[in-house]
Amino acid sequence: MRKFYTLLTREVRGYFHSPVAYVVLIFFLIVSGIDFYFQVSFMNQRQVQFTVQEAFFNSFFFWFAFVLIFPLITMRLFAEEFKLGTIEPLTTVPVRDWQVVLSKFFGALVFYLILWIPTLFYFWIFLRITNQPAAHSAGAYFGSYLMLLLLGMFYLSIGCLTSVLTRNQIIAAVISFCAITLLFFLGLVQFILLDVTSATRDLLGYFSAIEHMGTFSRGVIDTRPIVLYLSMTVLMLTLTHQAFQSRKWRL
Amino acid sequence: MIKVENLTKRYAGQPAIKDLSFEVSQGEIMGFLGPNGAGKTTTMRILAGFMPPTSGRATVAGFDVFEQSLQARAHLGYMPENVPLYSDMRVTEYLNYRAALKGVQHRRVAERVGDVEELCGLKEVKKKLIGALSKGYRQRVGLADALLAEPDLLILDEPTIGLDPNQIRQVRELIKNLGRQHTILLSTHILPEVEMTCSRVIIIHKGRIEACDTPDNLLGKIRQAGGVLLEAKVGNDNGAEELKKISGVRDVVTDGEDDWKRFSLWVESGTDVREEVFRLAADRHWTVRELTRRRATLEDVFVELTHPDLV
Predict the structure, then answer these.
(1) In what order do the strands lie in the sheet with B208-213?
(2) What is the rounded distance in angstroms from the CA atom of residue A75 to the CA atom of residue A70?
(3) Number of folded domains that form chain A
(4) DSSP state of B129
(5) Is B205 helix (H, G, I), strand (E, B) or coil?
(6) Residue A163 sits in which domain range?
(7) Which residues 228-247 of chain A have a CB within 8 Å of chain B?
């Protein structure tokens, strides 16, 4: 456990030692700030049936920034170590491969969660100024941040997998970006299919991150997406572990 | 400490090492010599548990490097070629991190890190970023890292490459001192280093072991061992024929265009024929201006074994 903790600390620190972390942080802060501003001003202009918080997590801006950050966070995880050769000292100390894989995943997750901290302030500021909570209930906060965590875990694990497959960070970023965007658009296909009764439409609906976020940000905690994202994360991390170990059996 | 049996490693079908077998016992300093691409790094990587062999078996401190990799790794300190390091960390920070990964007890980390920094001369740069260090210091950080957990076995892949002559001397002294407590397997290109530090030498070429012996025995085995060089005016005599009559002389090579001839005598190992050569020269009234015994170096052994055309 101490070794895992040591590796995890190194991963998280590694982010803040590199300029990429700050670029991502600032980019994300700007986009989410603009998003929040637009949502609030939009609601100021007319009567709406939803809360600020629902609006914030379901806007175009939000999703745009959302799919973009994962490749940036995960591309360096393994690819950089392969490129610099630091994987050699790392794998010749008595540390298990799964410890390395999990520490990288959780390191990325910690950084991802840090990205979201400022958004909590947005809602707090909103409350202070308007004297109205951004969401009707604590459940809505809980639901939307839980969804962020679940989606984050799944997309970060995809990023881990693409990073372990190559020693080139750009390739890792492009592949994970494609994979995440494709998955994301898979959920959008149901809006194109006009036949409401089609089974395909229903099926694709189960994969729709937008739909999941919609339900969760209203405070409705559906267990199906929870199971889906957790199991997909475990699957991706297992594949990552296998790929990381492949140096032992690959010719 | 190390036992290697029939170790073979292929990369995409191309063998990098073929059927290597050797042993290194406790307390030995084993030198690992060979031209570039001979398979030194591959062998060391397998021993350090970085990758498995295609076939064959290797054990470190009694643990199979693949089957019981974790236990084997706990017994060794490995310094990879070119010393890859995290350039965004500071020296002490990096060593603390490595000590924790190697399972050095928490309360001993500070003491161990202090010790290896002292030993490797890193005190004055301990707060610097590794990315800002010179090659020589990076090399020493790698060595310090290998020593952190006080391993029984040190595997050092070219520890002195890229160092200046003073640093090489320091590292050599350091390795010699370390040899008192640790078993060491080190690879290098610098042959005097091996002669001075190693108790045994393996010469590897094209993935095969060409020789494995003590430096002295290796020197005895090759052609130039104990050779004698004579430079003299021999007049009308056939110098080479006369010299060959001396017992112990196996062969004589003559060169030199003018009156002064240079004779290189290849003699049996362990014999010194200089006295006989002097008597012969005195008897035949040769004018001698040089008579020396050529001590073979490991460089000769190396060249002879790995590139016989150059001899």
Answers:
(1) B76-79, B153-157, B183-187, B29-33, B200-205, B208-213
(2) 8
(3) 1
(4) B
(5) strand
(6) 2-248
(7) 247
Strand pairing class (B153-157; B76-79)? parallel
Are A92 and B106 inside 8 Å of each other by CB? no
Q: Does A21 touch chain B (CB under 8 A)?
A: no
Q: How confident is the model at residue B174 (pLDDT cuts 50, 70, 90)?
A: confident
Helical axes A97-130 vs A19-45, angle rounded to 10° = 30
Asked if B190 and B35 touch (Cβ cutoff 8 Å), the reply is: no
Q: CA B68, CA A84: separation in Å to the nearest integer?
A: 27
- Mean pLDDT score, B136-152: 90
Report CA-CA distances (Å) from A41 to A46, A47, A48, A186: 9, 12, 12, 31
Does the reported pTM lie above 0.95? no
Q: Residue A234: its pLDDT value, please? A: 97
Condensed to tens digits (0 to 9), the pLDDT of residues A176-201 reads: 999 998 888 887 777 776 666 777 77
Verify whether the Cβ–Cβ distance A89 to B98 is below 8 Å.
yes
ipTM of the modeled complex: 0.86
Residue B299's pLDDT band, with cuts at 50, 70 and 90, is confident
Q: Which of B86, B94, B95, B152 to mutate to test the interface with A (most CBs of A within 10 A)?
A: B86
Distances (CA, A) of A97 to A137, A143, B139: 43, 34, 26
Q: How far apart are CA A183 and CA B224, in angstroms?
A: 72
Which phi and psi (to 5°) does residue B190 adopt?
-85, 110
Catalogue all structural domains in chain B, each as residue range(s) with its CATH number.
2-218 (3.40.50.300), 226-295 (3.30.70.260)
pLDDT tens digits, residue range A134-189? 777 888 888 989 999 999 999 999 999 999 999 999 999 999 999 998 888 887 77
How many angstroms separate the first and last alpha carbons of chain B? 36
* Spatial CA neighbour of B239 closest among B226, B224, B225, B229: B229
Q: Which amino acid is at A105?
A: F
Tokens coding A30: 């700007």
Residue ranges in chain B assigned as alpha helix (H): 40-47, 69-74, 91-101, 109-119, 135-147, 165-178, 191-197, 215-221, 239-244, 274-283, 298-306
